[in-house]
Records
---
Amino acid sequence: MFESLSSKLTNSIRNLSGRGKISESNVREAMEDVRRALLEADVHVDVVTEFCEHVVQDALGAHVTSSLKPSEEMIGIVNQRLIDVMGPVDSNIMLVDPGPTIIMMCGLQGSGKTTTCGKLAAFLKKRGKNVVLVAADLQRPAAVEQLEVVANDVDTNAKGVGQVTCYSEPEKCGEYGTATGVAVGVCKRGVKFARKSKADVVILDTAGRLHIDDELMKELRGVQKTTAPHQVFLVVDAMIGQDAVIAAGTFHEQLAVDGVILTKFDSDTRGGAALSVKRVTGVPIKFIGTGEKFDAFEEFHPDRIAGRILGMGDVVSLVEKAQEEISEDDAMKLADKMASGKMTVDDFMKQLKSIRRMGPMKQILGMIPGVGSALKNIQVDDKQFDRIEAIASSMTKKERNDITLLGKSRIKRIAVGSGTNQNEVNKFVKQFQMMKKMSKQMAGGGMASQMAALQNGGMDPSAMGDLAGMGRGSTKTQSHKKRFKQRKRR
């Protein structure tokens, strides 16, 4: 997300490099480039005009710090304005006591509404809440069955002590179109079921359309009037730009939306919706969907997103992800093993799996300040890590404990067992031994210390760069490793 916008925006601001001071002429010149970049990112034209004017006013009225260059000063100003456009932070869900809290989800068809209901349920389950999902989308084929599968999957596999169940009336689907109140009745009975089962939260998965029409709005208003939801959340597809903003404005006019959830935030899209929807609707962005899995769901923090747009990374989110997946005790134990040269392949794989659970590797690396821009033209293939895991799984326990046992015959057997070739196995062995040796010399450096450092809010990008290149060894990867190390020394 924002990859193209980030590149163009930072380049526009860096054009001020070499200027002795901020002046109206060079600021307006830079802002013309910024304006084009925002419009190309499909940001609403009114938002672009207002944003650029505010930045110019802030820049001309700013006291230029003597230690900062004009480009650095401008990055600070643009960063603050981006935060203002998308903010404030408001991921709070108003929960009532006694329950259940009723949350109504609405949005266009294809926005990812049903999946988002599951993600929100997983988010609440993790916080100890019992959730009922109500299948009230009776128009889209198999929508009811999809929500039933989603609810079962979240209840079975998502973290947390809460329970997630689905209330559905599949037999009512055939009645849709002949009785417009059918979905309203399903929601009413779903809320009654949630109260009877003493659920903390009930989430209504309502119908969508390919475009907004009177029939849809009549049904949604009926659901709202009958169930009196405590929160109405609008699900918006971040990939459709200004169309999403227009839809958001219409939904808000009809239903008085309380918050927006942006989906598909991990896609290679322009990002205009994220920068426009708050300004157009006046309601906060609550959450963002960052992937297909149910845990790929984050509270929306404008300051962190602004940092990502300007290539400054997002260390806070990275730390939070690490704390969820990696035990501080485990990280410190492995750091001790690495410092003494006793790390095994099993230790390495345990940490690798923990890191992979944090999300796609390129996304994780992009949260490290200065690394995202370096990776923009590099494809980090997560399937390569599957091959590494296959190689490790094809080793015996003795081999994983002592990788020096691997001779030609064993390497050949591992290659056949893992579906790889002998060169790949040799490469993994060589790089693992090199990492083991380097970590001992650094007295606990490398991946484990990075994980321990993440627990305390800091990390060294070079080790994560090494991990991203594990198993590939391409010239491009090696050159980027050198850049990471040079940054570290500087």
---
Amino acid sequence: MKTLRVSTKGQIVIPKKLRKHLDIKPGDRLIFRLENNKLLLTKEKESPFDRYYGFLNKTGSSDDLVREMRGKR
């Protein structure tokens, strides 16, 4: 168990050991849930479509888009 201090802005730092164990990286989304007067923190599951977010706003042909999405082979 680790005691954390809340900053004046309401922020906490998740210890590196816990971030590594839970594979939490910058940009990951976390879910805070209150249950039986306890604060539970879970990592949001990543959608397989998340990495393609924003691709439809690109210009170019559909063939170019598919090549970009597939990456180098």
---
Amino acid sequence: MNNVIIEVQDLKKSFGGFLAVENLNLKINRGEVFGFLGPNGAGKTTSINMMVGLLRPSSGQVLIDGREVQEIEKGTIGICPQELVLWDYLTCRESLMLMGDMYEVPGAKLKKRVDKLLDDLFLTEKANTVVSQLSGGMKRRLNLALALIHEPEIVVLDEPSEGLDPQSRRVLWNYIRSLRDDEGKTVILTTHLMDEADRLSDRVAIIDHGKLLRLDTPSNLKKETGEGDVVEMIISDPGKNQEFINSVKKLEGIYGVVEVNSQINIRARDAVGKLPLIMDELKHFGLRVVDLSVRQNTLEDVFIDLTGTGLRE
């Protein structure tokens, strides 16, 4: 069996004079969580919509198991959109049964599938509660269940954690992992949350302004940006940021210094050990620290390194 389940070839989409996606080429492997990481408006959702056949590309093609996306059976893909698509006056169980009927899931199998999804997504106690009375996190989990009722081979999740509290996000992340690990499904995940992409994705495609900037495993992408930790600083006079940055860059063991939204990010090996040298430079300019933290390298640092701007700008 071919390990590649989706192949995207020279995909392009224009809306009038606006080029939303430009010459996208990639392959997605069977049974992996594949992350699209980028800021809102980067072209992630447009790319996904073309890949699953919801949007016709201006040029290029998408192959799923070697066949044109328009030719595959409708049940091959399950799509969980960013916007909630729910029936407010149906209960959770009724919603799932209705969606299962639409996909022509056999009756006995459908009932078992509904019970399992309610249990897996911690909705059993709310099975007979109408959707309008659910919390935001419960609605989002039900939205996911509806996309999975017919047991699709490929699951597409568009910004699945949008608006979720930390507890609901943890439940969702664990379930996404189980789709890959326990059910062998291929999961395509679009997100602007670096932590989500890092924790869930086997491979990450970083996209911005409709272009694929880099595609690799999260660990390889972070290694590519450079070793070491990151010191995040806000200094007392942002007007002197560039002058301070130019000075810090000359220090031994400093791998990179960038300014993001008036904050200075310094990447260095043994960053804590470098702090006295950095503070000496600060004093030299008559400046003081307003805020300071030290953290490990992240996918957001990769994005900044590629584009010079922050992921959420």
